Amino acid sequence: MKRCDALVDAGRRSFFARTAAVAAGAAAATTVAGEPAKAAPALALIEYPTRKLANLRDLKVNEPLDIGYPDDQSPGVLLKLGTRVEGGAGPDGDVVAFSTLCPHKGYPLNYSAGDKTLNCPGHYSRFDCERGGLEIWGHATQNLAQFRLRVDEAGDVHAVAVDELIYGRLSNVLQG
Amino acid sequence: MAYKRNIDRLPIPPRDAKVQNVVCHFCIVGCGYHAVSWPVDRQGGPRPDQNLFGEDLGQQQGADAGAWFSPSMYNVVKQDGRDVHLVVMPDKDCVVNSGLGSIRGARIGELSHSAVTGTLRDRLTEPMVWRYGVPTPTSWDDAIGLAAEVTRRVVEAQGEDGLIVSAYDHGGAGGGYENTWATGKLYFESMKVKNIRIHNRPAYNSEVHGTRDMGVGELNNCYEDAELADTIFVVGANPLETQTNYFLNHWVPNLRGTSLDKKKAEFGNEPVAPGRIVVVDPRRTPTIAACEVEAGKENVLHLAINSGTDLALFNAIFTEIAAKGWLDRAFIGASTTGFDEAVRANQTSIEEAARLTGLSPEDIRKAAAWIAEPKQGGARRRTMFAYEKGLIWGNDNYRTNQALVNVALATGNVGRPGGGCVRLGGHQEGYSRPDYPGGRPAPYVDQLLIGGQGGVHHVWGCDHFKTTLNAAEFKRAYKRRTDLVKAAMDSVPASDREAQVRAIMEAIRQGGLFVVNVDIVPTQIGSCAHVVLPAATSGEMNLTSMNGERRMRLTERYMDPPGSALPDCLIAARLAQALERSWRAAGKADVADRFKGYDWRTEEDAFNDGYRQHEKGGQFVTYARLRAMGTNGFQEPATGLEGAGPVAAGTTTGGTPGMVVQGPATEATRGKEVAQQAGANTGPSAAAPQTGGTERIIGTKRLYADGKFNTSDGKAKFAAAQWRGLQAEGKQAEKDKFRFLVNNGRANHVWQSVYLDQHNEFVRDRFPFPYLQVNPADMAELGLKEGDLVEVYNDSGSTQAMVWPTLSARRNETFMLFAFPSGAVGNVVSKGVNEFVIPNYKQSWGNIRKLADAPEATRKLSFKAQEYQAS
Ligand code: SF4
Ligand code: FES
User: In this complex, which of B57, B762, B866 lies closest to A142 when CB atoms are compared?
Assistant: First the structure.
């Protein structure tokens, strides 16, 4: 457990370092004309924190576990599907994690164990957890943001990146 | 894996970003959006004082946030020649959508042409002429000169019937007042073209002649009525998927009971309750599932009729409410004629209707009670009637439309709060044209083209290869005829105009067809064209339209058209001027003179020439006033200006019942009212005010609120509309011969004929092929698995689709996505039409056989149920 805490901390550190750089860049861009702007180049991609979500032992097939990634304000779900899927992590290739903020208008998605989908009570959108968050039907203009996972030798499941913009953020890692 | 953009952040609009009004140019709802743009080398920041929204973007935004936009709303486009960031995001203050975006409209940004991000690089950018065996770019003068020269010679040889036209006649991206006026002026004023058709049907006709002939224009209520109704009775429509934000923002609150306060405020002591809904549809649609979630199953009545039997159901309901006396006698007496005759003529017992429709008698009685049984204390039940393509493109369109309006009139539900008898619509409307010179029924244009008639075909924003009926035969004939001309053009030097034109005319004499195609993207029918002209779309030009409650707005030009593309109205003007030159050069000065009056420099000039001069209330409407009224606009017709006071407030038909306030009788009032021939004393009721001001325009919330309708005596007419089985020729035989109903329609993800979506990876990845929903037991019998490619075929032709196993699909009843590029359902829709040449797409039957195992593109897809699962 200690080891994973350390990893979370390492992730947090890079997270803060990264946001500071972005904020500086943004501020520079909005300085009044005439003032000498300090150059503060931002990186092309966001530096995501690595965050431990759970250990494989904690996961039961088809029982969703609430998580947050890249931070607690961005809720998600960690799932052991029980069948190997493309993009699945872990020895069985069946562990996946998704944002649970509906990319339509940000209502919280509910997991339907019956058909392994995430469903939105806002306006009925549906996303398939077995197909990379594909929008089966709905109003969102993107498929569901999936959290990329890495499982280490100890069975700890870490989130390391996100593949779509998370609802309610113009930067997946909050800045400023 | 599902398609992902891998975008992890987006530029933030700075405080001084430019904000312009946009109305979604896709469906009829016309949701309000804003185009936010700023120079490409600048950005705002997360602090409230650094961004347009004044929000702290360093925090997670909550649900319904006004300060979040998705990657699909963003792009980098050209504005006045310079690259800018562009975000097209829903407007929270628009009363239509209150900040909701749909899966279609919220992709306007991404569906824009961008040389920087590469989106919609397939747009047409330069005029092209068939040369050297391919479509070859050239100048406007060159391309239009050839188009005009051939057109003139064909008209000389064959008369104006030799010119066949296909043209949009709607609003949004399907026209707009500027563009319908310009094309209308060219073909109906400068010329008298009768052989013209509309984008989705093979003749120049109304889809709703039935209701108009009764004096009831088809867009007569307001969206708020869906919040106020006791019952919504909806026929052949799937509003969650095809009028999405109208359903979400106005129907759902009623079904949920959250519009109760509004009802109380409007109706005082009258008893009110959360709304109930009756849905007439052979298919269980996503709309029905959503209604059950919101209203509870007990308040939703799904009448899953046998396909095409709507009319029998409506007549039985009409008979039942008449027998029970659930009528608005006062209204019938004061505002209608022909009630008693219609009751006699349409007499249909519940049992007979049950037999025809396949419904239970109890359900039919229940529907009648939900529509018309007086509320506690005897108050009249307020029912809103809504219909769309299931009725419009269904069996016996004209009579079925009338049978429904009968029920609405008998219960006093037109022109009243919580009522209305309306079509739900596809595109926005934006019709402003001189009178159509043809008759009724209008010529069946597809049959003319197939039969070798006409020598030149002008196609404006239509792709019949995807959207017409009898499409297989149409394509065969069209290719044959246009190839003759291509071969002729290839046989003489491209630079020798006179030789080219002579060769083309000779090919036409031998049955060839010369095609001029105006569009924004390359189309399937456009592959046959000899001249292709690139058009601008909404937002690349200023464009006015009205939505399904007649709400008129101006979409401002927020970006440049790609390449040298032009607004359609200015293309029409150039074509008119080229025709004038051609006629003059041919020594026909009298004909040439008819092509004067196109000296427009901008789309606003076309608007002022058309809408302002010819539409009812048009004298009050200017770009400046519309711009000031933002995304809320006003509801047509305009009746005056605030401050100056309404000129004709409270009435919808002018001083005299049925009169047109201004201008010649046209279909221009479509959706608003049925046009009447203007009589002697029906001139403008007010002098046109000055155009520079930004006074607010006063509009019309509901039509016929005064109880006066568009007939010569101002009274709505009940109609006799007897059941006559499957009306269109050949339909019954097709049903008897083939096993599967091939019902068809739209899906949420996709706009219209996929003309933009086919270039969008998000949609293409989801639907590489049109889907065909099939009951799993039928699939088992046919040896089919999910995602398999199948051929759907009958005697009209064949097409392909991917199989989507659907538990809620009834045995032997399938549903196929309409107008898809990789499988046109029109191939298997027979040529049978009604007496006014309205196609019948919905009642098609065919068989199914396997083409291939699920290809790579479908194997990765999800075929789980579309229906929302509560847990
Ligand atoms: S509901 Fe219609 S108008 Fe509104 S955003 Fe969607 S497609 Fe556009
Ligand atoms: S917020 Fe999820 S569907 Fe609208």
Answer: B762
- In 3D space, the residue among B180, B188, B280, B293 whose CA is nearest the CA of residue B231 turns out to be B280
Task: Report the C-alpha gap between B430 and B175 in whole angstroms.
Answer: 6
Compute and round to an integer the Cα radius of gyration of chain A.
Answer: 18
pLDDT 10s digits, B86-107: 999 999 999 999 999 999 999 9
> Please, are residues B801 and B772 in contact by the beta-carbon 8 Å criterion?
yes
- Strand, coil or helix: A157: strand
Q: Which residues pair with B716 in a beta bridge?
A: B336
Q: Which two tokens stand for residue B576?
A: 């008119």
Residue closest by Cα to atom 2 of ligand 1: B27
Q: Which ligand is nearest to the CA of A104?
A: 2
Which of the following is catalytic: A18, A80, A104, A116?
A104
Contact B730, B349 (CB under 8 A): no
pTM over 0.90: yes
pLDDT tens column, B547-560? 999 999 999 999 99
- List, as one string, the DSSP characters of B476-540: HHHHHHHHHHHHHHHTS-TT-HHHHHHHHHHHHHTT--EEEEEESS--TGGGG-SEEEEB--BTT
Amino acid letter for position B193: V
- Residues composing chain A: 176
Peptide bond into A70 cis (omega under 30): yes
Integer angstrom CA distances of residue A133 from A86, A87, A127, B241? 11, 11, 5, 20
Smallest CA-to-CA distance from B483 within B462, B459, B504, B454 is with B504
CA dist B126 and B129 (Å) reads 10
Chain-centroid distance of CA B661 in Å reads 26
In angstroms, what is the span from residue A139 Cα to ligand 2's centroid? 7
**∠ CA B283-B287-B291 to the nearest 5 degrees?**
120
The overall average pLDDT reported for chain B is 94
Q: 3-class SS at B303?
A: strand
ω into residue B90 within 30 of 0, thus cis?
no
Given the cut 0.85, state whether the ipTM is greater than it. yes
